[in-house]
Every structure is written in structure tokens, then in C-alpha cells.
Amino acid sequence: MPTRIVLNKAAARTPTRSTSRRSAVLDRSEELSARTTRPSLSTARRKSSRKRSVVTFPSSLLREAASAELNDELDFDRSVASVPGESTRRLSSDDIRASPRLMGYLFAMTTGAVMLVSVFQFYRNEIEQLDPSSSATESGIEPDKYYSTATGLVFRWKLWAAIYLSAAAVALSFGTLLVHFDTVIFPTLWIAVFRDGSLAERNWILFLLVVWIAALHVSTSVLSVGEYQPNVYFTSWIGFAAMVLNYGVWRDSAGLITTETMINQFHRETTYNWIWTGICSSIFAGAATDIYYNRELVRLRFRGERLNLTDEDWIIILSVIWSEVALCCLTVALNEVYLILWHFPCRFRREQSMFRFEFGWRQIEVIIILVSTGAKFWAILEYSGVDGVINGLSNAYFGLWGSFFHSVFAFGTWLYENKHIETVVREEINRDDDNNVNTNTSNNNSADE
């Protein structure tokens, strides 16, 4: 039979490795071939229908390595792998050694190790004890609460918290990686905890995310090590981002709604840009508020001179900055929550004229984008330069730049979304006509009653 010929050819190409298991598989496949016809190799391949997500890590190489080893060992038509008992040798989605979240734990462990070493080196090489007789202590600064560096002060508790939290992140991530490969002590327990869609792993990821949020605060806030040590600043953000992405990977593996699906469900394309603008603006506003609460200890300089801000100045500054955050939230709400998007707040048109003037939320949005982008561009030029007050490694600096970039991206997205403006206007007119017809029908029915 044709199936026998294929199997014999494959067996001829296979190196002589006579094992009882191989003989059993071949005998079983020949027995089944008398009752059914084998599918071709191309149709036997299973194609994954999983949709690629925006939030994802590369899958583990262990799955690919195991599949390659299996193919080399069998070295004949893949249809033999469908023999009962043979398919159990394949790695399934419950094999935690092939978990796509391993990459996130590895990132967290690596960045935590770099952060731990950097903080320790900073403490050993650049930290000095405050002299009780120095001018700093005479100005009211308690020497037992701060360390002194060549460029400023560092909170003692933030330095030691950075050490402990980075060490905890390394230990927890390393332990998580180890239990994924445990086949001796509690393999069944680890499979139940770290399989796809496990609520226990979700809670574990959220716990690690809380650890990295705490490490992010103590490493990037005012009078922290991250202000003076770049490795500490960037690794704290990388570790935090790794856990956020790992949570997204968990949701994808659990079959829940993913980030890509959420983005595709937005009514307006600019909503995505407004969300990121709001996140960056929140980082900038939080950093400014942190500086305000520690204004007696922070040395603000502008154009080479000490910058002394009164409480009234701080109220104005913080009001403007937080207004930007509120504006981002408002635009997202108007884009997504308001049902009749194009009718807010008003619209004027003259149907008999050669032109039509439209004024609605879409036009107001682009005005807000342009004004916001221009204001941030001016703030960057004026206050983030060489002698600017917002300079160096700080959340305020990167938050301002991030908010500016996403405002520019929002303007580009708005242009792309409205490039077929005539089609949009025509749809609005048709919608108005339909609404008028429905309104008249309702009024007539009410009058008849």
C-alpha cells in the first residue's frame, strides 16, 4: 500500500537505532494504515490561529528544541505522531518549562541584579556621612536622615530600600525561574500554580509588580539614588515595565481580552495617543508634586541662579500641570464615552453655500492638540536646556519629553484619521437626516395617541 511504501522509505533513511518503542510505534502505524489513509505532510501540520498581541514576549526556546529533538528521533511522516500514546511526548500548553512568561521573570531578575550592584557601588564609592558641624546641619538638616554626595543629598531610607527591594526582586524572580524546571520536589504543584491562566500566577505577577512599583518610587523620586546613578534609574523602570508586560502575556495566555483588542475597540484612533499623553503627564505632575513637598531640600537652579519659588508660585505651577492630566482624561471620555461624538458641543453649516463650515468635537480636539503641543515645546526649550530647571535624570524630565512626543503623535493620528474628511461629513449629514426622520416619526406617533 502507499502508506507502507512511505514508511519503508522513511525507515530506510533513518539511522539504525532499533528500540522496542520504535518497533511498537511502526507496528501500530501499519495496523492503522489498513483502515484509514494517512493525510499528507502539509495537511498534518497544525497552524496556530492565535492572534499576535501588542504585549508579548518571544515563546520559550525549550518548546522549539523539544520539537526538533522529537523530529530527529522519529524522522518519518508526522502522521505517526498521531498514534495513541505517542502524542503524550509532545510539550503541551501546560508544560511550564515552555511558559512565555519566563522571559519576563528573566528580565526582572537581570535588571534587579544590575540595580542591586549599582546601588551598592554608589553607597561604597560616593556616599559620605554628614558632618554635624557642617553648614547643611546648621540649616536644619538632620544628619541621621540623609547621606551626602558631591552633588546633593540622598535619603537614607530610600538608599537602603533600593538595596532591599532589588535584592528581593532578584531572589523572587530567580526562585520563580527555578520552580519552572523542578521535576523532583513539587512538580505537580508548580504546574498547577504556573500553568496558562492560573490565578495563582496572576496574583504572583501582581505581587512582583507591587515590589517593582515600590522600587521605582525609592529609586527615581526626589533625593534618591536614581537621580545620581543612571543604572539605578533605568533598571527600576525596566523591571517595572517587564512585570507590566508579563501581566499582559498572562492575560493573553489565559484567553482574556488583550491590549491589542482593547486598542482596536476604541471609537477614535486618537484615544490611544491621549492615554499615553496622560500617563506621561501624570509622571511629570507627580514628579513636580514630589519636588514641592521636598522644596526645602531640593536645589532648583535656573540660568545659573538659585530659583526660589513662593507657595503661590507652586500653586500656579501645579495647577497648570495637573490640568494637563485632567484634560487628557476629559478627551478620552469625550472620545469613548460620549455617544454622539460629532454633535458636541455645537455645529454650524450653511447647506446653500459653496462651502460648509463644520465645528464639533473633532475640530475642538485638534485645537487642543496643537495648543498642548506648542505649550510643551515652549516648556522644553525654556526649562529643560543646559541651564534649565528640569534637567538630568528625573521623572520630570522624561515625563515632559514623553508627553510632548505623544502629543505630536496624536496630531499625526488625527490627520490620518480625518484624511477622508468629505466622507466623514457625508456620514454626519446622513446621520442627521436619519435622526430627523426618527424624531418626526416619534412626534407623529405621539400626536396620534
Automatic annotation (TrEMBL):
Could you tell me which species this protein originates from? Fistulifera solaris (Oleaginous diatom)
Keyword field contains Translocase: no
- Bias class Polar residues marks the residues at 34-43
Q: What is this protein identified as?
A: Uncharacterized protein
Q: Where is the composition biased (Basic and acidic residues)?
A: 24-33
Q: Where is the composition biased (Low complexity)?
A: 10-23
| Transmembrane domains' residue ranges | 102-123, 159-192, 204-226, 232-250, 271-294, 314-342, 363-381, 396-416
Q: Which UniProt keywords apply?
A: Membrane, Transmembrane, Transmembrane helix
Its domain of life? Answer: Eukaryota
Residues covered by region (Disordered): 1-49
